[in-house]
# Entry
Amino acid sequence: MAETPTRRPPITGLVLTGGGARAAYQAGVLRGIERIRTECGASHGPTGNPFAVMTGTSAGAINAAALASYADEYSKAVERLHRIWHGFQAHHVYRADAFGVVRSGARWLTLFTVGWALARWRRAKPKSLLDNTPLAELLAELLPLERIPSLVQRGVLRAFAVTASSYTAGIHVTFYDAAESQKPWVRSQRVAVPGRITLTHLLASSAIPFVFPAQALPFDGQDHWFGDGSMRQTAPLSAAIHLGADRLLVIGAGRLHEPPGEKRAAGGYPTLAQIGGHALSNIFLDALAVDIERAQRINATLSLLPAELRAHSMLRPLEMLVISPSQRIDDIAVRHIAALPSPVRTMLRAVGVSQSMGEARGTGAGGGALASYLLFESDFTRELIALGEADAMARADEVRAFFHWPASGMALPGAA
# Structure
């Protein structure tokens, strides 16, 4: 009599999206999930790592790299990530002193004024609004990326991936390190490249357009200039699925659905800050919402098919747990604009960022959306961490069901 084949356990993937300083929220969610795991006595083997596949984009790529680098001591990795975000200051990420801002931001902004002629005469070639050299130094100190290939080979991780957008070729690229001979995939305007993930990959993935400088990476036999991975990212869930994940924990950095009711319209012509914040929100937030809705529609369609048809379909259902902010981060940001270093605040004021009552009421008049991506200050990041942890705890039942953890206090057999 033939034996029934043993079904392998599902592979869980973690998807962390971009959003600059907003990514502090992800640290709070992950910490909340660890609290839930500890309270119910669940275990994930000797390493404690529940995610075989980790993928990240932009600031989410940096968070994912922090977890992947220490995936063999996952709980400590989560606490380490929490400490970093809890104590953040802008000067850890970009030059926030007056001289540094003048060299980068003020020089760059002259191109939007009559000063462009003088700048051209002086052969000024500003690369970005801000100089993120401090971030490169911080990541080099904190992230032992060289550990990841070994962790992948040992099976602690199945795969780790980050994404970036090629300014040179105009396509979206996923760079990944996987233990198995995972074949690269090619889709419309997006491709995958296997190999070791380096500091430059993280800087490229998190290079917010106009704000941080592009990075050069080898691709297709030559060096390409890469920017933020959220640009032209039409399918944020795709990389984790291609790398074998059957179910996904997705942590966003912005509300996926606004509450009902109309917002009061802001008077006057929109400022550059409003337009810039709107553009960045489109880059960082909209694609995720669309991809999640697409996956939900596929799940609904597959559920209507008979079992024999589902078995022959190239599509498969995808279990997802999506956690995103329960509050508008734009509104939180405007309360903390004063925490920005004075030179940065002065520069942003020139494009319309202000701590206005209009912004606090949700009109967008003060440029809170734009500020939220640059507010690497502990007053702001701590509030986002607290929000993330609270949002995770509020959904503790869903978290336990997703990971198949027992109710609190009911430890699984053999749980440490």
In short: DSSP finds 17 helices and ten strands in the chain.
